[in-house]
Amino acid sequence: MDKSEIYILGYDFEKISRYLFEIADEYRKSVDYNFEPDHMSERTQMCITEILDEFQMNKRWCGYQYHLEAIFLYLNTPTAAFKIMDVYALLAEKHHKNRMAIEHDMRNLLEHTWDRGNRKAMIRYFGNDYMRPKNKAFIVRIAEEVQLRTNQKSYHS
Questions:
Q1: How far apart are CA 118 and CA 101, in angstroms?
Q2: Strand partners, 8
Q3: Predicted confidence (pLDDT) per residue in 95-123, tens digit
Q4: What's phi and psi for 7, nearest 5 deg?
Q5: How much is the pTM?
Q6: How far apart are CA 131 and CA 133, in angstroms?
Q7: What are phi and psi of 38, to 5 degrees?
Q8: Mind listing the pLDDT tens digit for each residue in 19-54?
Q9: Which ranges in the chain are annotated with CATH 1.10.10.10?
Q10: In CATH, what is the architecture of 34-150?
Q11: 3-state secondary structure of 152
């Protein structure tokens, strides 16, 4: 790329974009990731649990707790700062596991629920019969439903 393409109207867009990425990264690091279920409002926790129960998710699987915490984390994190890999890393650190193990447990629970749970409820929320939702899509959709049910304001509204 030649210098004349970078400088348009006197602005160095490459420098500006680098600066914006640095600001976003610093902001993401400064966000308080306090997602302990005991810090959840009882109403929010009950609402999330009701929805997961509606799908007949197995509470004994460790992926259940990870989904619960990930949904709460999504509700309390600005959109720009919410990265699914960060969620896996935070949950892994908290539970002293590998982040890939966290992702695997969450995915396995979704697969199990899709195959053996309440498929009609899953279809009602996710709209298709042929493909189970991915972890992030599941977290986002359930968080949206929790917001609707609790009239909770969030960063994503």
A1: 25
A2: 11
A3: 899 999 999 999 999 999 999 999 899 88
A4: -90, 105
A5: 0.69
A6: 6
A7: -70, -15
A8: 766 766 665 555 555 555 445 678 888 899 999 999
A9: 34-150
A10: Orthogonal Bundle (1.10)
A11: coil
